Amino acid sequence: MTTTGLCHEALLYDSDTAYCDAVLPFLRDGLADGDALVAAVPGDNMALLRDALGADAADVTFIDRDEWYRRPAVTIAGWREQLAHAQARGHGRARIVGEVAFGHADRHVAWTRYESVVNALFADAPAWIICPYDLRTLPGQVVADAHRTHPVIRDPHRRDSSRYRPPAALLPELPEPLPPVPGAPLADLPLHDVTELGAVRRTVRAIASGWPDDPLDDLLLVTTEIAVNGLRHGSGDRRLRLWRTADTVICEVSDDGPGPRDPLVGYGPPPDGSPGGRGLWLVRQLCDAMAISTTTGTRVRISVTAP
């Protein structure tokens, strides 16, 4: 069966029984319909599903959610690949169980924004996604936000969410906090034109002294990209600042402009043929955290941590 359009639901569960009562019929019905089946879930829930499905578990692509939900933009790119693979195998629709790893409290907003962004980026995708929320472990605010990021709620009864907010309305109300910085910057450089980027990269290398090649290359690339983005799209006084903790470098590019109009900027690749938009998308793929503040001018701040 070929379908179009996303169905995005939050499953609020408080026991293993409630979890299986919702997820197992969802997967079994998908198997009967010929849908592609993907489950990015924690290990204990993966074991529950495998045991209950028996031989049918072989038809489900299981993914360790702790590896899958590390960076929102990377996860979004991963879902795009999963959907493309499903279509290439002849499936008309994909059923996905995506149990987000919200992680430390300072990442909750980032992943709540991700849940909202999914509604826009995959609006036309032939996909039915159930996002389980474990009421035994998740903070109340994360659960409350599930009502705002999912058009449909199951608790266990399935219904439209009366508190749902479309991404264009919710994302500006839910700005991602800037990565914290440890006091005064180690470097504060004015940005006037691209001829200064060589000096920027030398400064970054010096501050990240001792880092392995791979994270250093990522850091140099993302700092260059946000500097170029500030030069190209910013206005007024443009500056680049750098901080370092034991294993993390934080970079901020600021200007006096209003910032990007599109709240989805950087979450997905630009449309084919688009002359811009790839820089911030690349940055979101490579950095550990990225936030844009437009409270006073525009500040784009990223952090990269060396393993």
Residue-averaged pLDDT: 94
The counted number of beta strands is 12
Q: Roughly how much helix do the residues carry, as a percent range? A: 25-40%
Unreliable sequence segments: none
Order of helix and strand elements from N to C terminus: EHEHEHHEHEHEEHEHHEEHEE
- Shape by Cα distribution: elongated
Count of helical stretches: 10
Strand count, sense and barrel status of the largest sheet are: 7 strands, mixed
Share in β-strands = 15-25%
| Global structural class | alpha/beta
Instruction: Going across the biggest sheet, name each strand in turn.
Output: 3-2-4-5-1-6-7
What is the CA–CA distance across the termini? 45 Å
Radius of gyration, whole Å: 21 Å
Domain MEDS: 8-151
Pfam family, one: HATPase_c_2
Region (Disordered): 152-177, 254-273
GO molecular function: protein serine/threonine kinase activity
Characterize the structure shown.
There is one protein chain. 40% of the residues lie in helices and 22% in strands. The strands form two sheets. A seven-stranded mixed sheet has the order 3-2-4-5-1-6-7, with helices on both faces. It has a five-stranded antiparallel sheet with strand order 8-9-10-12-11, covered by helices on one side. The radius of gyration is 21 Å and the shape is elongated. It has helices at residues 16-33, 43-53, 65-68, 72-88, 108-121, 140-149, 167-173, 197-207, 213-233, 278-286, and strands at 7-13, 36-41, 60-64, 94-98, 127-134, 152-154, 158-160, 187-190, 239-244, 248-255, 289-293, 298-305. By secondary structure, it is an alpha/beta fold. The model has no long low-confidence stretch (mean pLDDT 94). The protein contains ten helices and twelve strands.
